[in-house]
């Protein structure tokens, strides 16, 4: 059975053809391994529409940030009008519907990250939170949202507290007399900040505040809070709201801050699914099934993180596309004076770039798998039937995503930087687009859960599994990402006894290494924590002082292992043609080996390798695989790459006409060849006649 | 003592300042010396006289406005330097580093532009021109003409031999005719060329009437009429548009269409063309001529090393001060919240970068002094040509590695600092974004790092045959004297068994000497074996063998070599410390930098059987954490020593008073229009009228 690839357009002919012809597979078929066919069609539909839409035309020159905000606001409104959802989409299951919405936002994010952030926060996250934490009395707000009558924001982070949500200081005190909540911000450190859409545009926000009845504090709760009059966009009295100003990137998003002064809202604005306050001022817990609530709450957090994973994998794909196409066309030096080589021919250049091509491939498939698991648990937690191990599944999905989001965003950060440097000076041009890609990924590293804090969730989960192995001899890993831990006695005895490059260039070796690494690291982290705990008697200290070289690496290694695991599962599905297997395996091995190269220290330290050749074999293995990949790599990026319109780089166009595009850019830049408007300020009146110009 | 250093305002940082184990002013004096501190103060006070240099904007201006402001700053900065240089008598090394630490941090665009406009242009003429070009230098330094420097072409950067702009001599008119055959041969990335330069030092292939190409030569080329700033006919010149950073610099491109310039505009020190069109040169070998033509690029690389370290110092200043003030989580609900600097993982993210600056600070001083001595040697026109050549080559090897390494260190430090400030680090007002965008270019200009660093290993690889033959290795700067003991070094083993033994300076230097010997031997053997077993044609075997021995071999070699040199310089400096407290803290920083570098080389220690068993790896990791912990209480004082003045720090997170939240509040509230509704508010409320689908 051969997949129908006819809907994928051919690429224009040009200087890249030389390498394209060398590929040993059909790039369109490979594309359908990286992408789900229906979702790809949906994304193409979105991109085609935006490419034709005048509001989405890219400006010729950088806009002032206030203008960027205006454009992004208008683009969001326009985007919300499009009906990209398939006609049966509205009736689809929760899971399919969510998948469609995520895909539409994914397409938007690849081309217009600012607009997608505005939509994700102001529409989806708001809607999800209302749906999971609110009740029927909030239904009308959701309807207004779907009717595009309001744009919202979600305010949690405060100026002085981000990761540490428990210590937030905004209060909502219940006033029995008026049946209202009174919201207050004690000082600027407690101002809500970084709230997307709050700076200029939203009319309503979800605000998290400490709920008080009398002197009693009941913890953080969410409230629907009106911010601006929708007719005039003026803020209501009692609040100070503003834009936090310019950022490194994503300047189309109006991130805002807000302070409340005795600001009153009706009692009903409390999102009351978990708990409520009666008109008389009694606090009532309404939790029926705690598992479901946990799932529901996590859903909101995880949606952002899996989305971030996918967008980051796409950004990385975009960056490697630009750098590989550039490397295949750009020539420099050569074995003799009259022959120059494309820089892709240099081993050094291959070693700098190809591991990121592999990473983009693996992480794209990994993020797709993570979304699938995420949507599965969401669907299960929405059904009426009780599933025994739902809690365990949720924990495992949470562990996967908590490792996956940092893994993907950091890989993307490093990959974009390497690609930027690999394009030399021309990579520094704004029109090469690396600057924007980097400024966008940069935000993802610290939002939706700061990476360094998030990885601790994964190691904590693994440590719990380890504990359970030691105590009960079993692990709770329904998705079996770490079920091998129960074989720890055998695994820890693994030794490397290979002697040739072939011994490391295979998935069995890589899997063995990872199983050993995870087991070893979870063991030493556990031992370290136990020792620290004995010494300090403080769990908090024990956990903090076992992160570096221990827990943090454990999460990373686990993330890489799971990514590879899902990748390998995908490429062995029977819809993958035999002709594609070699290239897919090559990419997987390259990813595995280049990740392992960074963990060699542990393999030596823990006695996995006594043989001093391991390091050399792994390094030679990487170089071998790189040279193998050289003739296929242009076709691999063709499979990874979105259309030119989305890549939006003069160095990375599919036609490979590098210098023509640079020339067009230079010659067409507004004012490129005219003297500056302020030329009189620098002209030299007493300039000497140097007689150095020729008289013709 | 140290009256050139003033106290910091009180505030939340006091707690850590009081914990410091040493007097920060003493350390500053020891590290920098009085001459440097005085010069820097002079510079600082002079800068304060120019309001244009002190302007701060909350909002990124338009590109055109940014260019205009930058150009004003270029002239102001030039006046600052002229005036301070005229009244003080400072040595080159201190002056150069002070410039980096103030001007480049104050406004990187203006500093880069000032440098190309006035100094690069004139230095090319000084080193490659003769008496007949002296007036260009004078006119330029007087500000009557504005220079630029054009080498890179669209299609060729690193490979300078492949450049295709030609300068063909026409005996009839006694002129050179400059020509760009196509867009790929356009000169590009030329700083100041985009909008402002009136003259350029342009490199082109010199062609004599007989059609023979004589290689790259530099020419003084008039570009724009300095009275109108309109380009002359025959040149097509333009601005390259927006970049990732340094947008105040008008990088330009230029194409020549049979553009005539007088014969005398050839910078004729290495070669000249007679009026009738004969080429005459002292150096007959074209390869050596090529080297001579591009020989004076070491200076730029040495300066970029300092500039990178100053960028790094600003980043760690911001992130460490923020870490001391920002609190998050507590051990139990009743405890106070803990400054994030107290967390092991946070220390590990930031403190090694602080150590990097200290290591490079002494190294930069050493290197700038060596460079200055070399300049004296050149000026003397000493007859010891051999010594001049070898010193030049060794300086080239050093500067090629340290420029690359400093670029990578600064890049990684800035990124880590940005992430360590989490959300607030993403604000423009944190200053870290701009720092990153401006630093970024350091990794690819003035020699793309990965290509450039090969110069260092090439130089080292030429020395190894001497070792093999048992001959003595002697280089003018003595940076690899230990190679004479290579056979013994290669049989030695990693012996430290404790933290104290590992961090002992002698043991550290021994380990790095082993690394350099091992990697040199390995790279040499790899190269030879690749060449021997190569399937490529005879003439291209060496080319491929060189290329295929870079990854894991030659690149690591260059890095280990320069790290050893940096550590040696720092160790020498520490041995001169009289104050015990200062000595102790510097020893910790030395050890932290060394062990952090060593960590990356651990696989080599095992692969080369220098280490075996778990000890080495465990010891190295544990030592890093231990050092971080023991430096933690000194971190703020160490930052105070290296921090630029507040108006240059210019970050709401990093001011010396530590009032992070007050500055954040002020920045958010003062941003123009922060609290007002957008001017386009009606487009939102009436959006249904404004937006129409075409579909």
TrEMBL record, chain A:
Q: Where in the cell is it found?
A: Peroxisome
Annotated Acyl-CoA oxidase/dehydrogenase middle domain ranges read: 153-262
GO-annotated cellular components? peroxisome
Mind telling me what this protein is named?
Acyl-coenzyme A oxidase
- Which InterPro entries does the record cross-reference, listed alphabetically? ACOX_C_alpha1, Acyl-CoA_Oxase/DH_mid-dom, Acyl-CoA_Oxase/DH_mid-dom_sf, Acyl-CoA_oxidase, Acyl-CoA_oxidase_C, AcylCo_DH-like_C, AcylCoA_DH/oxidase_NM_dom_sf
Sorted alphabetically, the keyword list is: FAD, Fatty acid metabolism, Flavoprotein, Lipid metabolism, Oxidoreductase, Peroxisome
Q: Which cofactor does it need?
A: FAD
Q: Which residues cross the membrane?
A: none
Where do the Acyl-CoA oxidase C-terminal domain residues begin and end? 507-682
Q: Which Pfam families match?
A: ACOX, ACOX_C_alpha1, Acyl-CoA_dh_M
Main subcellular location of this protein, as a coarse class? other
Q: Which family does it belong to?
A: Belongs to the acyl-CoA oxidase family.
What are the positions of the active site? 448 (proton acceptor)
Q: Which GO terms describe its biological process?
A: fatty acid beta-oxidation using acyl-CoA oxidase; lipid homeostasis
| Domain Acyl-CoA oxidase C-alpha1, residue spans | 301-463
Cite the GO molecular-function annotations of the record: FAD binding; fatty acid binding; pristanoyl-CoA oxidase activity
Q: Report if keyword Lipid metabolism is assigned.
A: yes
Q: Which residues bind FAD?
A: 157, 196
Q: Which organism is it from?
A: Ignelater luminosus
TrEMBL record, chain B:
PANTHER family xref list = ELECTRON TRANSPORT OXIDOREDUCTASE (PTHR10909), PEROXISOMAL ACYL-COENZYME A OXIDASE 3 (PTHR10909:SF390)
Identify this protein by name. Acyl-coenzyme A oxidase
Taxonomic lineage of this organism? Answer: Eukaryota, Metazoa, Ecdysozoa, Arthropoda, Hexapoda
Q: Which family does it belong to?
A: Belongs to the acyl-CoA oxidase family.
Q: Which GO terms describe its biological process?
A: fatty acid beta-oxidation using acyl-CoA oxidase; lipid homeostasis
Instruction: Tell me where in this chain the Acyl-CoA oxidase C-alpha1 domain is found.
Output: 296-461
Give the UniProt entry's GO cellular component terms: peroxisome
Quick check: keyword Flavoprotein in the entry? yes
Which pathway is this protein assigned to? Lipid metabolism
* Predominant location: other
Compartment(s) of residence? Peroxisome
User: Where do the Acyl-CoA oxidase/dehydrogenase middle domain residues begin and end?
Assistant: 148-258
The protein's GO terms of the molecular function aspect are: FAD binding; fatty acid binding; pristanoyl-CoA oxidase activity
Start and end residues of each Acyl-CoA oxidase C-terminal domain: 505-685
Q: Which Gene3D superfamilies does the entry mention?
A: Butyryl-CoA Dehydrogenase, subunit A, domain 2, Butyryl-CoA Dehydrogenase, subunit A, domain 3
What keywords are assigned to this protein?
A: FAD, Fatty acid metabolism, Flavoprotein, Lipid metabolism, Oxidoreductase, Peroxisome
Catalytic residues at: 446
Residues reported in the UniProt entry to bind FAD: 152, 191
Q: Which residues form a coiled coil?
A: none
Report the cofactors.
FAD
